[in-house]
Amino acid sequence: MKALMGYLAGLLFGLGLAISGMTDPARVLGFLDIAGAWDPTLMFVLGGAVLTTFIGYRLVWRRGAPLVGNAFRLPTRQDIDARLIAGSALFGIGWGLSGYCPGPAFASLGGLTTPLAAMLLAMLAGWFLARRLA
User: Fold this and answer.
1) Rounded distance between C-alpha atoms, residue 95 and residue 88, angstroms
2) Could you tell me if 120 and 111 are in contact, meaning their C-beta atoms sit under 8 angstroms apart?
3) SS3 per-residue string spanning 44-69
4) Running DSSP on this structure, what letter comes out for residue 81?
5) Is pTM, for the whole model, over 0.90?
6) Are the CB atoms for 126 and 118 separated by under 8 Å?
7) Around 69, how many Cα atoms within 13 Å sit in the side-chain half-sphere?
8) Distances (CA, A) of 84 to 6, 76, 89, 90, 118
9) 62 pLDDT exceeds 80?
């Protein structure tokens, strides 16, 4: 049941990315191009995500326990260290250069292109290096 719920959540996320057009790297790069042909679409998608999460968390916390599982598991670390800052910076640089972040990249696998393959290989290399350095 837990795996099914994870699959359904991923499917819903992927559909949302596809419907909103966020699997198109040109749309993301257009949002980042504030001095040129700026495309504000991503701002509205992110705003909708924040609003949905805000409401969803309030509804979920009223339940007291998750539908699938014994208890909620949230991260406990709250410190900001060099590793977090470096990882965030690398994520942002990669997103800005390619127009892809992991969610849209996986949602776009059906139309694999050379830039998408390069981004996915770089992401996998980063995961591997991060685990080796940890």
Assistant:
1) 10
2) no
3) HHHHHHHHHHHHHHHHHHHHCCCCCC
4) -
5) no
6) no
7) 12
8) 26, 15, 9, 10, 24
9) yes
Q: Which residues contact 21 (CB under 8 A, 6 or more apart)?
A: 27, 41
For residue 31, report the phi and psi dihedrals to the nearest 5 degrees. -70, -35
Task: Domain ranges for the chain, please list them.
Answer: 2-129
Would you state the structure tokens that stand for residue 131, as one six-digit string? 């685990």
Closest CA to 126 of 101, 90, 97, 80: 90
Helix (H, G, I), strand (E, B) or coil at 10: helix
Distance CA 129, CA 102 (A): 17
Q: Which candidate, 116, 112, 107, 123, places its Cα nearest to that of 17?
A: 107
Q: What is the pLDDT of residue 85?
A: 92
- Between CA 74 and CA 101 the distance in angstroms is 23
